[in-house]
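Lab meeting, action items carried over

1. Structure of the two-component assembly. Owner: GW. Status: complete.
Input record:
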Amino acid sequence: KQEVTQIPAALSVPEGENLVLNCSFTDSAIYNLQWFRQDPGKGLTSLLLIQSSQREQTSGRLNASLDKSSGRSTLYIAASQPGDSATYLCAVGDNDMRFGAGTRLTVKP
Amino acid sequence: GAVVSQHPSWVICKSGTSVKIECRSLDFQATTMFWYRQFPKQSLMLMATSNEGSKATYEQGVEKDKFLINHASLTLSTLTVTSAHPEDSSFYICSAKGGGSGYEQYFGPGTRLTVT
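Predicted assembly:
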């Protein structure tokens, strides 16, 4: 059974810092890996989707990489802003999508 | 495009009653819909997968007689929590995909259920 782990569980940084969120998974035979943002009490906002044949995806200040062989993905956020404060979830799989527990990010002004 | 809605966004019900949550794909036909549950400060857990016109497939530990799922059309799936109890209080999120393997799931905004 696929297990997804996210480190750290919580992160607090000053505004402007670049930061990296980590995601690891136990079964490298995946279709997709997706990063989401979740604000308190809200649903999911899809940030980046990396298909199994891809190594990375970029959107604005966000860059996600995927290394299937090592079972890892990283989400890089450049020049963090207070509005980036949220919980970031990593999920792997296709129909049987498995989520990590998330990293709760706080960006201080 | 690829918008999924849920209704209601929040609901409070008394213990023992049943609650129905709707999930709709607004601008695409969803061949497969998924229901997730999220307890406070925990991640999403897949409850069941449903294909239009077929019975839902439930994850281990999810009671199919308690969580009734109907996927009667390509744009609508419903989750009915029967005889709800306080421990069923949770955030329920649905998602939908329009194609087969490799297609992206699109998530609804979630429904907050509180059972008193």
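2. GW to write a short summary for the group page. Key points so far: The CA atoms of residues 99 and 111 of chain B lie 25 Å apart. Chain B has a mean pLDDT of 92.
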